[in-house]
Amino acid sequence: MDYLEWIDFNQFDLVENINKRGAFSSIYSAVWLEGPRWNLDEETEVWSRNGPIKVILKRLDNSQNMSQEFINQLYKYYKCLQNGTLADFFGITKDPTSCYMFVIRYYKNGNLYSYLDESMGMLCWRDIADMLWSISSGLHVIHKHDLVHGNLHGGNILVENEMDSIDAKITDTGLHGSADKQISSSQQIYGVIPFVAPEVFNENKLTKESAIYSFGMI
């Protein structure tokens, strides 16, 4: 698909605040009853779906007044967001308070920090290599689109550990900052300080090189 899907909020059941927050958002889990589009029947032009499926709803603070700058940023990144090497980004919805929410696949092991806590830091070399390969593949796709992530750290890496493999996906690509603030004109630096390249503080500019620094810190 060449677009993000608009999903009616009534399509979600068992919406629950899981008491996790980002700097400008709060996180909910939910069940998407229809589920994402799976296969298009070209004859009837009807999509089959694979729901119900558990998802994450990322509620954007103050998004009732979403700025044009944030909309432009979303438009700039939307094709990249749909790439399979990044966390599955299904679409957008709006909750009863008129705040916008991103609809993202639920990754059962959470972010990299929670996964490391869960495993008590005991990882085999194969798992480490698999996760680093997945993260670097996602970063390569972002840079191939001539874009930068903007806020890469362990909290923006989602992990799913299956029986014979482990997958780590980058999320929140390019969508940092408040939904109601100006982005391109802002002088504020967004990020977790240990993961921000030193030159960013001097030049106030995010680059592909600074993203590689963030990856190295992970």
Structural notes for this entry:
- This protein has 218 residues and is α+β, with helices and mostly antiparallel strands.
- The protein folds into 2 domains: 9-105, 2-Layer Sandwich (Phosphorylase Kinase, domain 1); 112-217, Transferase(Phosphotransferase) domain 1 (Transferase(Phosphotransferase), domain 1), CATH 1.10.510.10.
- It has 5 helices and 10 strands.
- It has helices at 68-81, 112-118, 125-144, 198-203, 208-217, and strands spanning 5-6, 12-22, 25-32, 37-41, 46-49, 53-60, 89-94, 100-105, 157-161, 166-170.
- The strands form 3 sheets. Strands 1-7-8-6-3-2 form a 6-stranded mixed beta sheet, with no helix packed on it. Strands 4-5 form a two-stranded antiparallel sheet. Strands 9-10 form a two-stranded antiparallel sheet.
- β4 (37-41) and β5 (46-49) form a beta hairpin.
- α3 packs antiparallel against α5.
- The longest helix has 20 residues, at 125-144.
- The protein starts with a strand and ends with a helix.
- The model has no long low-confidence stretch (mean pLDDT 86).
Mean of pLDDT: 86
Q: Which regions are unreliable across 5 or more consecutive residues at pLDDT < 50?
A: none
Total strands: the figure is 10
CATH architecture call of the largest domain: Orthogonal Bundle
Q: How does the major sheet shape up?
A: 6 strands, mixed
Total count of domains: 2
| Helix content range | 25-40%
Q: So, the CATH homologous superfamily of the largest domain?
A: Transferase(Phosphotransferase) domain 1
DSSP strand content: 25-35%
Structural class: alpha+beta
Number of helices: 5
Rg computed from alpha carbons, rounded to a whole number of angstroms: 18 Å
- What is the C-level CATH assignment of the largest domain? Mainly Alpha
Q: Please state how the strands of the largest beta sheet are arranged side by side.
A: 1-7-8-6-3-2
Termini gap: 32 Å
Give the topology string: H per helix, E per strand. EEEEEEHEEHHEEHH
Large-scale geometry: globular
Might you state the CATH topology name of the largest domain?
Transferase(Phosphotransferase), domain 1
Keywords: ATP-binding, Kinase, Nucleotide-binding, Transferase
Organism: Anthurium amnicola
Domain Protein kinase: 13-218
InterPro entries: Kinase-like_dom_sf, Prot_kinase_dom, Ser-Thr/Tyr_kinase_cat_dom
